[in-house]
Amino acid sequence: MSETEIVYLHGRRVWDSRGRPTVEVELMLSGGAVGRAIAPAGASTGAAEAHDLRDGGETFGGFDVARAVANVNGHIAAALLGHDAADQAALDATLIRLDGTEAKEKLGANATLAVSMAAAHATAGAAGVPLYRHLGGEEAGMLPLPQIQIFGGGAHAGRRMDIQDVLVTCPGARSFAEALDWTAEVYRAAGDLMQAAGKLHGVADEGGWWPAFDTNEQALEMTVRAIDKAGFEPGQEIALALDIAATGFHRNGRYALGLEGRELDSAGMIALLAGWIDRYPIVSVEDPLAEDDWDGFAAFTRAVGERVQVVGDDALVTHAGRIREAARRHAGNAVLIKPNQRGTLTETHEAWQVAKQLGYGGIVSARSGETEDTTIVHLAVGWGIGQIKVGAMARGERTAKWNEALRIEEAMGPRARFAGAAAIARRRG
Ligand code: PGA
Ligand code: ZN
């Protein structure tokens, strides 16, 4: 008998970083290897994401996952017991067929993703190799350039500011570990500056400082001051990255900046962001326009796509077909890769492959609702996705990922390569 046949498959309810239930799956293979994985959950989700199945009703604000867990222990276990976990494509195809809907509405993408990832972990365990090696083979050896949050906003901070993430990235660093060293100093400097200004009020959902500002631009200013105070050269060594998450404040075709009491149309939004790109050392902008504003996305890319990375998240939802559509419209030049936006590893990998073929860059990303699960770090290294974004250097569900990447870099020793500045080199022009 093979060593990788699934002999035990179990779903359970565990908790995420917002105190909400989520799905964990544990499975065991015939050879004794065990794999375990937990599904994350977004707050500023794209409309076309795979379905995060929740029970509704009163319990836990409607966020309970009893049905998704029951699907794992019922239909999914019945279909997969005896299945070869090592054939990820066949296993994921079975999940897709069993669900039968485009958005995994029946089983829940939280259920299917946890199963899909747990199977990969178990198979890697059976082979006695780390997951990134199982996914990427002997060549896998590139640590991603991290985008690390300094201030959180939008849906992750009670809409205290409109834009969602002000992050830094370290194109000047020579290793993943060095990028974290530098960012830790910047994060701390930003906290000191907020403290001195009487504006330190804890952290947002992804660990970035709470955004106590009068305008959105002040968050950019403060981050540049923090880079400077930490002793680094803004732009050269450490640069800014933004996730505008513009879908979150797009109403009736207008962009409503609640913090600033004004509304912009698509062209106004593009002008605002282009002004920031002129005045601040910004190298990457995610979701500058709303998910249904494809023309705006394309216009923004035409305007600044040769100077900065333009990243699609809400509109592209880790979906190969949508990434092709974006390329056809020349919208963006990089994509966010979030496994739970699709619900299986195979489809997530397909989205990345398509993006790469079309010349798009990639950033593997956590969700705002996270756990100690570190699977995405292994996807970034194993699949050679050049960048990663998991929040700030605070909160255990964030540091779990950063620390896993440090372990991988150390374990690879001299074979480790760092994606560095090349990861955000312009893809157009
Ligand atoms: P989310 O935020 O997980 O709440 O969607 C992350 C992001 O927008 O990149
Ligand atoms: Zn985003």
Structure explained in plain terms:
- It is a single chain.
- A hairpin with a 5-residue loop joins strand 1 (6-15) and strand 2.
- The mean pLDDT is 97.
- The strands form 4 sheets. An 8-stranded mixed barrel has the order 5-6-7-11-12-13-14-15, surrounded by 6 helices. Strands 1-2-3 form a 3-stranded antiparallel beta sheet.
- The protein has 12 helices and 16 strands.
- By secondary structure, the protein is an alpha/beta fold.
- The chain is 37% helix and 18% strand.
- The longest helix has 21 residues, at 176-196.
- It has 2 domains: 6-128, Enolase-like, domain 1 (2-Layer Sandwich), CATH 3.30.390; 138-423, TIM Barrel, CATH 3.20.20.
- The chain binds 2-phosphoglycolic acid and zinc ion.
- 2-phosphoglycolic acid binds at residues 42-45, 155, 164, 243, 245, 313, 336, 365, 367-368.
